[in-house]
Amino acid sequence: MSSGSGSLTRYILQRLLLIIPMIWVLLTLVFLLLRVAPGDPVTAAVGDKLSPEAIDARRAALGLDRPLIVQYLDYLGSVARFDFGTTLSDNRPVLAVIRDNGGATLSLTVGAFLIALLVGIPLGLLAGRKRDSAADVGIRLFGIFTYAAPVFWTGLLVILIAAPLGWPTFEIASPITKFEVQPVTHILLLDAIIAGNWDATIDVLKHHLLPCLTLGLLLAGVIIRLVRVNVLQALKGDYVEAARARGIPEKYVVRRHAFRNALVPVVTVVGLQVALTLSGAVLTESTFSWPGLGLELIDYITARDYAAVQGIVTFFAVVVVVVSLAVDVINAIVDPRVRY
Amino acid sequence: MLRSKNTLALVAAGALTVSLAACGGQSGDSSGNGSGSGGGGEGEPWILGTTESVTSIDPAGSYDFGSWNLQYNIFEQLVTIPAGETEPVGSLAESCEYDDPQTITCTLVEGKKFTNGNEITSSDVLFSFQRNIEIADPNGSSVLLGQLSNGDEKNPTLADGAIETPDDTTVVFNLNSPDTTFLRLLSTATTSIVDEETFPADKLLADDQVVGSGPYQLEQYKAGEQATLTANPDYDGPNKPSSPQIFVQYLSEPSALKTAVESGQVDIAWRTLSPTDITDLEQGGKVDVLRGEGSEFRYWVWQLGTEVGKNKAIRQAAAQLIDRETIAQDAYDGTVTPSYSIVPPGFEGQKDSFKERYGEPSVEKAKQILEDAGVQTPVDLTLGYTPTRYGPNAVDEATELKAQLDESGLFNVTTQDAEWEEYQTAYKENAYDLFILGWYPDILDADNYLTPFLREGGFYANNYNSPKVNKLLDSELAETDTAAREKTLGEIQDIVAEDVPIIPSWNGENIAVASKQMEGVEETLDPTYIFRFWMITKQG
Question: Is B154 helix (H, G, I), strand (E, B) or coil?
Fold first, then answer.
């Protein structure tokens, strides 16, 4: 094994080891923040129905009257055993919530990424190539608008336009589709395809369009600006000048030289947009009643469901950390300077 | 590199093709007119949209609208309250009668079965009540069965001899104390009868495994998303299902519910649309806004633990000033009815005691009350409210009440809002002199608006404690003579109007919005808030 590959292994191991304290800090923060916030699962659900004595009895039944440190150690012990417990407000295993609803969030974010790339890259390229033209100004304004507009506002606007046209504005599929397609992967689109049910597949795709578009536009704003800036820089590069000097037509210079080089940093930054995507997904899911983890998270926060919130936030954190790690590793492979 | 570019182009083209196919293809039938597997009923399948959530479909694990409504359609109770009526009639039981105010004997209908084929006997009834009390789920409503429990909140069990089952069809309830409201409690979802061979005795059953004997059976359930119910083919009770299949879609936001019903993505929207949305939909004319009598109650509580709140003259002066008609119109677009009693209209023994005591809003009379008591004006008063629990209209209501009190020149009101969780702590710790709360009854009986509010400071701990009221509450609960009970209930309401521990504000209607193809919706909109799926049909 070469010394280069050895340092890469060490780099990956270091990054892997760093994940443990990161997750621990996050778990602790979430645990404490939930306890600091006023209320608990009992008062959230039936606080205006029960006497103070009855509320105390229910809190005791949930173990919420125990010292905070005991609850914390108990919680950490459970997490160490990969036991995330059962939700307090509706009695579901937390891992089942992640399994059942994670597929919807995954298909939403993947769809949004696809739309963001399909919209962002061509527009960014065009803006970079036609610098300071009317098209450039228009595209830049579009990029700023889609990035700056709150995702729920964009969502409501999209719903207002699409609802009168008969386009589905909420949920991941029609009731019939959800009834007919049996969960295999818990990703409804894949399950519909696996079942060979093409009506259901099309129905699911139709339901994906508006939420994916809403979230995708948010990401597209980032990509447009990033691609534009990189294309501008690339077009000033010596190798581009050299290509032009050799008499290569401009369109080939842009496509084969400037564009290709401009995309390298874009791939890295896009990978790091996972956290933004997940936070956007929470709001998008709420706007479209999309049955993903984000919507569940909001409901469980409202219900002060400690177990559920801790479990879902931990899952989100792990996803962000793993994707960041993957991006770092890819960067380290591509650019050895990163390892040092 | 050229190859990778081509691949990218192919992926992009593929994605676009799929999108275009989706645009032009046949949609999955969002109207619900698809292949159902219902076992009975002749109408079309239909979709109910709601923002209510489901805590548990197991009757031992819930105390909320969303869960109870599924349970009313999936399970049966010993007695039921028919739509538009107030008196319980037999359901699983042929009859349930008081032997005395502390003893009820029920005789079960013979030959009834759960959908799994198991026969329903008195043993299942005993099991259902016992497990509910002993599981004492933190989200459950076992607290309503206090008349049958041993009273130990840490280790609740069925009290000795509380339920007797002398034979397979006879159940005798021996209550801890006289309670003429208990028969009505036997019609609520928490007393749904479950199969002792299916449900665990010491824990809740998973939602997707529940088995009942009601007009519908749960075919599929996705928590927080959708419940699919199909008609129970073996059901032979009084509530014959009209539609073979019903979908319940759970939405997160009232705005999404409004769009869904307006655009035909759901056939009925029931609970909860904002007053603004209801008015908007009514004016739009695309759908029917259907109204039934409700039993929701919104009221202002005086905290008698504060200097201001403990002064009866101040409480009476505010009651004299409040203009409920204006609050109903300006804060709720006229979608609520002004309330002049702690007990809503339509309940046995109800009387508009506040109207009788105070008449029309009057600054002069209020001023006189304060002068007679030697209260210096303006009185500084802190008004608490919470938009997170009661919505944006609660802000409008608080603003309107503040304006009314301030404009009299007798009060100087400061409003304070808080998030629901914080609010609950704040009002119990005397942060507000006057604060808003809401209530839905557990049972359709006037006592359900009296005992929880008035006995020993009520559940909201406002420090009001009247030995006379406590005695009258005991008396009305034990009274079997209707006229005598009504008199006692009226007397309690008069005392409340005099002492003013709370100020009634308004009563809500039971409102649903339905497409014009739907029939039978209006008939189920009554104060029980039971949404009777079996009564509703969709015309093709």
Answer: coil
What one-letter code names the amino acid at A69? I
- Average pLDDT across each block of 10 residues of chain A; the chain has 340 residues. List them in order: 63 86 91 90 86 88 93 93 92 95 96 94 92 95 93 94 93 95 96 97 97 95 91 88 87 81 76 80 94 95 93 90 83 68
Is pLDDT at B18 greater than 80 in this prediction?
no
**Is the CB of B424 inside 8 Å of chain A's CB atoms?**
yes
Q: Record the pTM.
A: 0.90
Question: C-alpha A126: how far from its chain's center?
Answer: 27
Smallest Cβ–Cβ distance between A170 and the set B219, B265, B459 belongs to: B265
Please check whether residue B415 is in contact with residue A31, taking contact to mean a CB–CB distance below 8 angstroms: no
Query: How far are the Cα atoms of A57, B98, B131, B140, B154 from residue A61, in angstroms, in the given order?
Result: 6, 35, 16, 12, 8
pLDDT at B1: 36
Strand B226-231 relative to strand B163-167: parallel, antiparallel, unpaired?
unpaired
**Cα-trace Rg, chain B:** 26
Residues whose CB falls within 8 Å of the CB of residue A51, separated by 6 or more in sequence, listed in order: B459, B461
A60/chain B closest Cα distance in angstroms: 8
pLDDT value at residue A212: 97
Residue A16: CB partners within 8 Å, gap ≥ 6? Answer: A325
Bridge partners of B55, per DSSP, are none
Question: What integer is the mean pLDDT of B354-379?
Answer: 98
Q: What angle do CA B384, A46, A66 make, to 5 degrees?
A: 100
CA distances from B479 to A23, B175, B177, B485 (A): 62, 15, 12, 6
Helices and strands (DSSP H and E) totals, chain A: 16, 0
Note the ipTM here. Answer: 0.88
Which residue among B25, B138, B250 sits closest to A58, beta carbon to beta carbon? B138
Alpha-helical (H) ranges within chain A are 3-36, 41-46, 52-61, 68-80, 94-129, 134-148, 151-162, 175-180, 188-194, 198-235, 238-245, 250-252, 260-271, 274-287, 293-302, 306-334
Q: Is B54 on the interface with A (CB under 8 A)?
A: yes
pLDDT at B381: 98
Note whether A173 contacts B28, CB cutoff 8 Å: yes
Query: How many of the other CB atoms lie within 10 Å of CB of B296?
Result: 18
Residue type (1 letter), B88: P
Phi-psi map region of B107: left, alpha, beta (phi>0 left; psi -120 to 50 alpha): beta
Is B212 in a helix, a strand, or coil? coil
pLDDT digits (tens, 9 = 90+) for B414-469: 999 999 989 999 999 999 999 999 999 999 999 999 999 999 899 999 999 999 99
Mark which residues 432-451 of B lie under 8 Å from A by CB. 437-439
Q: What is the DSSP letter of A255?
A: I
Under 8 Å between Cβ of B239 and B220? no
Is A48's CB within 8 Å of B459's CB?
yes
In the chain, the amino acid numbered B427 is: Y
> Contact B522/B529 with Cβ under 8 angstroms?
no
